[in-house]
Design brief:
The chain is mainly beta. Helix content is 0%, strand content 37%. It contains no helices and 27 strands. The protein has strands at 5-8, 28-34, 46-52, 60-61, 68-69, 75-79, 81-82, 89-93, 101-105, 113-114, 121-122, 128-132, 134-135, 142-146, 153-158, 172-173, 179-182, 186-190, 198-202, 209-210, 217-218, 224-228, 230-231, 238-242, 250-254, 268-269, 275-279. 43% of the residues are buried.
Length: 286
């Protein structure tokens, strides 16, 4: 959910472009941009503030990621702060900004998560899945599941140790129905009931990427692709690839500075089969 300097993927060819930064600490939560065909000229946009959050108890603040439009047509999202315990929230809202409902207010360690910084995904079972950066038994993050009506919330995994810690990216529902994600040092796979947790790759070896915080995508070839913000041959970040069982791991690109450094967002596979992403900076290596 964080972007700036665009790159173009698997052949390591970079495409420069600029995009906006993450939502960060702004109270503005949701916007709509649309083209009017009646009263306005082509290419003009209208901006509509749908909802703003403050910091009083039981409210919410600091959304990091765009909301999810679920199969029921509602928008679902997270805030990393606010809520009764200032530990973050999960919310639901109608697309016109009405009907704001808090489905969960995080409590924090040791029994609950804290500070969700990735977005939500909808599983094949219709439930919502996500991660928290902190909280859990080790206060190093959690994986969670929540039904869309908010009635059933459960922690699938308390992260720590070899699992990896402090996840920030959104999860992915793979073609096999399992969930895939990243922590500060690993790519993992887990079943939607929390079982079968498997570390597919641990980062940090010589020349390998480090800090794969932004999740993975599954491309049309079935492989998982992602980025690391540091590591690689220049310690400026990488693009990587691996299979769903963790095999066939490969570094596709190490950033060098002039062609970008420190990616702070995940990847997108476009209709032309290429991978697109972003780096946070472009500087010469000194």
């Amino acid at each position: 959910c964080r972007t700036t300097h665009a790159m173009k993927g698997a052949d390591s060819t970079l495409k420069r472009n600029s995009r906006s930064n993450r939502f960060g600490v702004v109270p503005l939560l949701l916007i709509t941009l649309f083209f009017s065909s009646v009263h306005r000229g082509l290419g003009q946009t209208d901006f509509l503030r749908l909802k703003s959050f403050g910091n009083p108890e039981a409210s919410a603040s600091t959304p990091w990621c765009v909301p999810l439009e679920a199969s029921d047509g509602f928008l679902y999202g997270t805030t990393s702060e606010g809520g009764t315990n200032e530990a973050g929230t999960i919310f639901k809202v109608v697309k016109d900004g009405s009907g704001l409902t808090f489905l969960h207010r995080f409590v924090g360690a040791p029994s609950d998560g804290q500070s969700p910084q990735g977005g939500l995904i909808e599983g094949n079972d219709g439930a919502l899945y996500g991660t928290t950066y902190l909280g859990g038994a080790n206060n190093l993050g959690t994986l969670f599941r929540l039904t869309k009506d908010g009635t059933t919330f459960s922690i699938l995994r308390h992260l720590g140790g070899a699992d990896g810690i402090k996840p920030q990216g959104s999860l992915l529902v793979g073609s096999d129905g399992a969930l895939y994600g990243t922590t500060a040092s690993t790519v993992f796979k887990v079943n939607t009931d929390g079982g079968g947790f498997t570390v597919l790759h641990s980062f940090g070896g010589a020349g390998d990427g480090q800090s794969p915080q932004f999740g993975v995508i599954q491309a049309s070839d079935g492989f998982l692709y992602g980025v690391t913000s540091t590591g690689g041959s220049n310690n400026l970040g990488t693009v990587f690839k691996l299979s769903q069982d963790g095999g066939s791991y490969a570094l596709l690109h190490s950033f060098d500075g002039p062609n970008g450094r420190g990616p702070q967002a995940g990847l997108l596979e476009a209709s032309n089969g290429m991978l697109y992403g972003a780096t946070s900076d472009r500087k010469s290596v000194v």
